[in-house]
Amino acid sequence: MSVKTILVSQPKPENDKSPYFDLAEKYKLKIDFRPFIHVEGVEKNEFRNQRVNLQDFTAVILTSKTAVDHYFRIAEEMRYEVPDSMKYFCISEAVAYYLQKYVTYRKRKIFHGKTTIHDLMDAIKKHKKEKFLLPCSDILRDVIPTVLNENKIDFEKAVLYRTVCSDLSDLESVTYDMLVFFSPSGIESLLKNFPDFKQNNTMIAAFGPTTAKAIVDNNLRLDLHAPQPNAPSMTMAIENYVKDFLKKKK
């Protein structure tokens, strides 16, 4: 099937050098961006109901920039002044760097992994005496708590934000050759907004195994799946498909 119009279920990249823009220019594609989900912070009363006392913790595990934002948001709303002695364990260098929005980098104790909780465990295990807070969303994957428990880390979860479906009603009469998804929540949003959605000739692309599974579990057709050995990114998978299609046309 021909692909000329693509809707990516993520915010538009802020960087002009995004591979999506290169892809659009190279193959004369129309690529639009629209988040199918968004994050909302839990309110102060809901946080209180979790019976988590911010003062009890000497370290924080931060898995995303969103977690950073909502940790400091809830601290401010609860009138808790984060002490200079607080230790921060960040899932990646990018998250650690983002902390500079809230703290003076050199004066704090900040540790980071590469991309996963496994990368971060060496640093966490060296500070086993700390009591860790894990700010998270309502759909935290089991892998992080599981790894922390396996290593007997003293930690507590605090749900500070949740993922909710965005209102997509303005897209009702718009059609695309391909829809691109990056999480099961995106599929949930599609079907919540359009319960009578019929895929027909619309291609659906998924990044990651859980997203692919959500597509199949909802009786939709999975047309494109990344990462693959020859396509570690979504843009490479799309480009490979477009190139193959153009070859067959010749």
Give structural attributes.
five-stranded parallel beta sheet; elongated; 9 helices; 250 residues; single chain
Radius of gyration: 21 Å
Approximately how much helix is present in the residues? 25-40%
Please give the oligomerization state of what you see: single chain
| N-end to C-end Cα span | 14 Å
Mean pLDDT over the full residue set: 93
Beta fraction: 15-25%
Structural class: alpha/beta
Note the main sheet.
6 strands, mixed
Secondary-structure element string = EHEEHEHEHEHEHEEHEHEH
Low-confidence stretches: none
Shape: elongated
List the helices and strands and how they pair.
Elements: E1 5-8, H1 19-27, E2 30-33, E3 37-41, H2 44-49, E4 59-62, H3 65-77, E5 87-90, H4 93-98, E6 109-112, H5 117-125, E7 132-137, H6 143-150, E8 155-165, E9 178-181, H7 184-193, E10 203-207, H8 209-217, E11 224-226, H9 234-249
Parallel strand pairs: 1-2, 1-9, 4-5, 4-7, 5-6, 7-8, 9-10, 10-11
Antiparallel strand pairs: 3-8
Helix pairs in contact: 7-8
Can you walk through the features of this model?
There is one protein chain. The chain is an alpha/beta fold. Helices cover 34% and strands 22% of the residues. It is built from nine helices and eleven strands. It has helices spanning 19-27, 44-49, 65-77, 93-98, 117-125, 143-150, 184-193, 209-217, 234-249; strands at residues 5-8, 30-33, 37-41, 59-62, 87-90, 109-112, 132-137, 155-165, 178-181, 203-207, 224-226. The strands form two sheets. A six-stranded mixed β-sheet has the order 3-8-7-4-5-6. Strands 2-1-9-10-11 form a five-stranded parallel β-sheet, with helices on both faces. Helix 6 links the parallel strand 7 (132-137) and strand 8. Helix 7 (184-193) runs parallel beside helix 8. The radius of gyration is 21 Å and the shape is elongated. The chain starts with a strand and ends with a helix. The mean pLDDT is 93.
